[in-house]
Amino acid sequence: MHFDPNDRQSLTARVYEHIREDIIEGRYANGAYLVETKLAEELDVSRTPIREALKQLELEDLVVSIPNRGVMVQGMSSHDIDDIFTVRYLLEGQAAYWAAERIDAVNLARLTEIVELMEMYTRKNDVANLARLDTEFHEVIFSASDSRILRHILTSLHRNTRQVRVNSLSTPDRPSHSLSEHRAIFEAIERKDAAAAKDAMESHVRNARKRRSAEGEAPDAQ
Q1: Cα distances (angstroms) measured from residue 147 to each of 22, 48, 94, 96, 197
Q2: Which of these, 8, 19, 31, 174, is most buried using a 10 Å CB contact count?
């Protein structure tokens, strides 16, 4: 892999995103050590952006620096995932409520497009595109809520559970159930029914927690 070494800010950001994605998707096992020189060689960059990226990841508790040993992957534990869904339940309903009140024409058009694409990819059982659209759907709502704080918190939480969504959408019947839940949220926002949007979003997240308890696995796609 090659990154443009002339764009320092973009270089560090891309290196950070690449390593972060590998951690979230489990390419680096929890407890594994990340070696700067090896990462620099793999990504064809100097050690400086690697070091800066690892510092940023440590601030997110995805890695931890161990004196005299190096940087160790912490990743996302089952407890972490459970915490994420608890926080999402508490906050995403409010984001949907505000989105119904504040959404503009651009974001509404994008939500409409996303739901239409979800319908098409559900028929095709295209898990990769469904997972991508799932993320986009929620991020549009975060943006439409017009709350910088909620957008920042919830976007980060969603990114940390991307692989969970992919895994869940691979299970039988989950894509169609997910589509129904997203459509209910969208329709409430479209008609500017803030209370219904909040209820639909909370039900959506609550259902994931119920499935997690029933299956004894990470929460389902959102």
Answers
A1: 29, 34, 10, 11, 16
A2: 19
